[in-house]
Amino acid sequence: MFNDTTPFVINAAINFPFCVLAIVGNLLILVSFARTPSLVSPSNVLLIGLALTDLCVGLIVQPAYIAWKIHQHFQLDPTLVGFLGRATRFASSLLCGVSYIIVSSLSVDRFLAVHLHLRYHEIVTVRRVAFFCAFVWFPCSAASSLGAWKYGYFELFSAPFVGICLLLNAVLYSKIYRVVRRHQLQVWNQLFKKSYLMLFTDSNVTVPLGLSTG
């Protein structure tokens, strides 16, 4: 028979292993990049930023959420319960917003790579991408602060923001697919023409040679 404690225990039991996985997995990613500087590229800087936000989820959000629910369930200090609740909402909203922007930026990065070709490395640099990854924390912090203190305020920003990100990803990946498909068809056409030319040249050489020897 379920009692009042059962949902809380299930919730904590689910969050704890995911917390450990988030910390260990993303730490390994960050350490691998730190030990291999040659891997650092504009695209990988975005991946580093994404790994950092996921690491913060495991280090901050999930432990704070578990602590919040513990104090709330056992009806401990109401002031601390309120503080933990606001801190959890702020951190989760902040990291969620930063993650959404970085994931969408990965789509933009891939689109620029296939669209700009050789100009990509001139325009998209490691320094610029690193500056962008640092900058996105500021507007996300401002929006998350509203949501931490007033219920419903964050949703006013997050709902249209998520919709725009999803639409942007869909449009960019559609364009990337068309560009890659066009390049693939061009390569196939060139290979076909080259194979046809080689076959035609070979037949022009072997047929007269066969007639002369016959």
From TrEMBL:
This is G-protein coupled receptors family 1 profile domain-containing protein. GO terms for cellular component: plasma membrane. Residues 25-138 form the G-protein coupled receptors family 1 profile domain. It comes from Pocillopora damicornis (Cauliflower coral). The chain crosses the membrane at residues 12-33, 45-68, 88-108, 129-147, 153-173. It is a multi-pass membrane protein. Keywords: Cell membrane, G-protein coupled receptor, Membrane, Receptor, Transducer, Transmembrane, Transmembrane helix. Its main location: membrane. GO terms for molecular function: G protein-coupled receptor activity. The keyword Lipoprotein does not apply. InterPro entries: GPCR_Rhodpsn (IPR000276), GPCR_Rhodpsn_7TM (IPR017452). It is found in: Cell membrane. It comes from the Eukaryota. Belongs to the G-protein coupled receptor 1 family.
